[in-house]
């Protein structure tokens, strides 16, 4: 799913340790082989319907109350991010900052357990976000690769995202879709949607070959795992109900000599309102240091 590199002060509210490693579904050797081959894998039985209903209520409250807007945690992924304007595709970073139960839920524990089976116990929780597609008008998520969001100085031996709906999700409501096997290909060139650097999201410059495109509808309590180079998107929500997705990202940090040595041009050009709100929420000294770092790396602001 669409990623955003966390700021220097990463909030990690997701349960870790021995409790998580004993929770959730166990992946078979065949499932792990399928994930490596196709770049994505559907997994069932991550949480009960009762928990999903409870989390759905918390989730809706987060967006209704616009939690995190002033800190840049709430923004429009594919449209211009303006106060008072309805977002085409609302996204929230680190939602368990505002509703801690999300991070301690069985759903989150299952996700971490699955990630440990894929990446090993040395993994780190690098991302947590929530994406809400409004009923009947939720915009499509453009084709992209999560790796395109990486910044200079970052580096992962491997990273994955686990996308978990808080209601049954269908093709009509905007389920995930993947280009099977694209994880074995190169990182494609990306750009801002509509070539507008004030928009947070990214899209591939060229439309990918859709020959091996796979839609992944699923029931609530399930999740779909994908690798960072797998090309993916999600359709618009044309159903009568909101489409709620909770996403956790995990990675194993690489050694220093393998860190990304340059920023991708599509990230350097970004000048989003979300970034400005995040910057202005920092204390003055940290705000100045952040500006200096951006200037040194050639980022526009």
Specify Rg, calculated over alpha carbons.
Answer: 18 Å
CATH class: Mainly Beta
> Within the largest sheet, what's the order of strands?
1-11-6-13-4-3-2
CATH fourth-tier homologous superfamily: q2cbj1_9rhob like domain
**Beta strand count:** 13
What's the end-to-end separation, in Å?
25 Å
Q: Would you tell me which CATH topology applies?
A: Jelly Rolls
Strand residues, percent? 15-25%
Number of helices: 8
Query: Stretches where pLDDT falls below 50 for ≥5 residues?
Result: 5-13, 15-21
Structural class: alpha+beta
| SSE ordering | HHEHEEHHEEEEEEEEEEHHH
- What is the CATH architecture term? Sandwich
Q: Give the number of domains.
A: 1
Set down the secondary structure blueprint:
Blueprint: H1 18-21, H2 29-38, E1 40-43, H3 49-64, E2 74-76, E3 90-93, H4 101-104, H5 106-119, E4 124-133, E5 141-144, E6 156-165, E7 176-179, E8 190-191, E9 203-204, E10 213-216, E11 223-227, E12 232-234, E13 243-253, H6 265-268, H7 273-280, H8 284-296
Antiparallel strand pairs: 1-11, 2-3, 3-4, 4-13, 5-12, 6-11, 6-13, 7-10, 7-12, 8-9
């Amino acid at each position: 799913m669409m990623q955003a590199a966390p700021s220097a002060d990463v909030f990690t509210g997701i349960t870790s340790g021995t409790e998580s490693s004993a929770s959730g579904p166990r992946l078979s050797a065949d499932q792990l082989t399928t994930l490596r081959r196709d770049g994505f894998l559907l997994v069932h039985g991550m949480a009960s319907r009762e928990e999903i209903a409870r989390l759905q209520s918390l989730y809706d409250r987060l967006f209704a109350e616009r939690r995190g807007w002033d800190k840049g945690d709430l923004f429009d992924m594919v449209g211009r991010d303006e106060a008072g304007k309805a977002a085409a595709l609302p996204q929230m970073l680190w939602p368990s900052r505002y509703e801690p139960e999300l991070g301690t839920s069985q759903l989150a524990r299952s996700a971490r357990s699955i990630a440990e089976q894929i990446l090993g116990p040395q993994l780190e929780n690098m991302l947590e976000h929530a994406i809400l597609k409004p009923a009947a008008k939720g915009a499509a998520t453009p084709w992209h690769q999560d790796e395109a969001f990486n910044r200079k100085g970052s580096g992962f031996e491997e990273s994955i995202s686990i996308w978990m709906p808080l209601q049954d999700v269908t093709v009509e409501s905007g389920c995930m879709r993947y280009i099977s096997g694209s994880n074995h290909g190169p990182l494609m060139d990306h750009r801002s949607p509509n070539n507008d650097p004030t928009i947070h999201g990214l899209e591939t410059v060229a439309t990918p070959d859709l020959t091996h495109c796979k839609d992944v509808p699923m029931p609530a309590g399930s999740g779909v795992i994908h690798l960072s180079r797998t090309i993916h998107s999600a359709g618009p929500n044309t159903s009568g109900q909101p489409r709620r997705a909770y996403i956790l990202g995990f990675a194993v940090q690489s050694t220093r000599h393998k860190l990304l040595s340059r920023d991708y041009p599509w990230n350097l050009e970004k000048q989003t309102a979300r970034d400005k709100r995040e910057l202005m929420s920092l204390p003055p000294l940290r705000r100045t240091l952040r500006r200096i770092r951006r200037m040194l790396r050639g980022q526009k602001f």
